[in-house]
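Progress against Task 2.4 (sequence-to-structure conversion) is shown through the following example record, which the project officer requested during the mid-term review.
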Amino acid sequence: MTTRTEPDFTSVDPELYAAAFQLLDPDPDPAPQPATPAARRTPAAPVQVLLQPAAPPVRLTGPVERTLTDALTFLDTHGWARHSLIHPEGARCSIGALRAAAGARNAAYCDAGNLLLDEARRQHGKKWETIPSWNDSHTGPQVRSVWEAAIRRAHHLNI
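Structure tokens generated for the chain above:
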């Protein structure tokens, strides 16, 4: 393939360019004028701009965090129990509180339970196979500590 080039390049007429630019911008900015001696001595007043505070980012509570938080609120309201899913006076163990908060054995219930058990294992050793076995073997403050840590993790993970 052979490409042919023209050896004769025609330059563009500068007046044609000026006319084209005049059509594109009929009222160009005037050229800056040199400052007068008085203008040089008087500083310009600062421009005051009021900035609107930015709205805080909206963070939605995830279903796992909500389930854990609601379950802990349930325990705070109705009481915490050991060795019984539901105590005759209304208190519940950790798994009972999760069931009450979730309303059904849905994904949030399963994920919240897994996160709670994982946090229990972090704090109290890997030997715990179920939430009820861990719940029944610890004191109220130990159980609450695990609940609070699980809620913080769910919040951090935004789940």
